Input
Amino acid sequence: MTPVAGVITLDPTVRLFGPERLQPTGIRTVSGASWNWYTLLSPENRWFFNSQARLAPTVDGGCTLVSTDGTWIGLDRWGNPVGGPNAGRDLRNSRFIFLSGLYRLEKNCTLAARSDVVAELTAELRRTTATLLQEPAYRISLALVEARAWAHTGSLQEGIAVLENTLREHRNEDLVFRLGHLLALSGALHRAVQILEPMVSTPFSPRSDFDCRLLLHRVAIELGDTELADRCILGLTMNRTRDPELGAHAALRARAHLWWDLITETDCRVRSWSHEPAGGALACLARWRRGWTLPGDPEAMRNEARTNPDAPFEFPIAEAAAMLGLDRIDDAIVRLETLDPALRAASRDDFGNHQLLDLSRALHAVALARSGNVTKARAEAASLLNALTPGLLPASLAREVLEGRWTE
Output
């Protein structure tokens, strides 16, 4: 949620096929256009999120960003914030170098997930862009990517330290959001609640009003905190439909009921919404748990996955569960094993995906038991129980595998 401002130079003789071709983190120029400058602006400029800003040129070659209520930010001819530590300096190239380095750090560390790579690339970026790091937006951006990189190596405490140190200087929503994820992943669920609740109580952008609240809902589910989960649902669905069977709040509640293994008939009928894009998948999983899988559920989950890209893991998991419900055991095992590498990677810095990984792995143990591979199923279930939260559906499924319920 960091606002940016930029200026591009267009060649009037060349047709440009859409501004999406201009990627400041990659190629600096394309045929017919080139970046003049591109600047990350302080996230504290909250009015960016609540008004339409326009770029107005100034006589000295700079410009101002002006909001509808008259609030403004000045930028000099090089794209530096007026009054900032770098005003009057030509740092345009450094700004592109920073973005390219940030992109490289994120990509390399996500793929390689090695601590020495994180340390090396971060040190290099700090050294080569030290001047830019005097600006808050750049310090915050680097901290966010560095923390996620550490999380992908499995060094959650390193990532937490980076975020906490930066938060001492800047009370920033993105920092709190990512810290909430890493704290929850580390098992510090109550600490995650402590830092997320103040953000959702006084939100000023979708990061806190939606993302932090959604994360808090996931943490509440893990804690079994019904009151906190209900407050999150109310905040997420306020001024939206309240139909008890079709509304977004019913879909959000179905997620909690599924993890708590307290499924109602209504949970089996909920739909997907923008505030709960996995609604259809949750309903399918609820039907499977109740033994009510429908013949067309696997195909329906594949179709819904294409129209709900914001739920990339719930629908494949639900598809596998539906296959189990229709005795397509081998298909379910293949579906879960195909999904596993991507889900494991995505769960390293995202607590919601970590919850989905728990469920997927528990379902895999069930599928193995159903296939007759009892020894492997029980070994997998036993190893899972050591890490799963007692009382939630993944733990219940693992325990049922150990008790032999899925081999009868």
Q: What stands out?
A: The chain has three domains: 4-90, 94-205, 264-402. The two ends are 52 Å apart (CA to CA). Residues 8 and 36 are 5 Å apart (CA to CA).
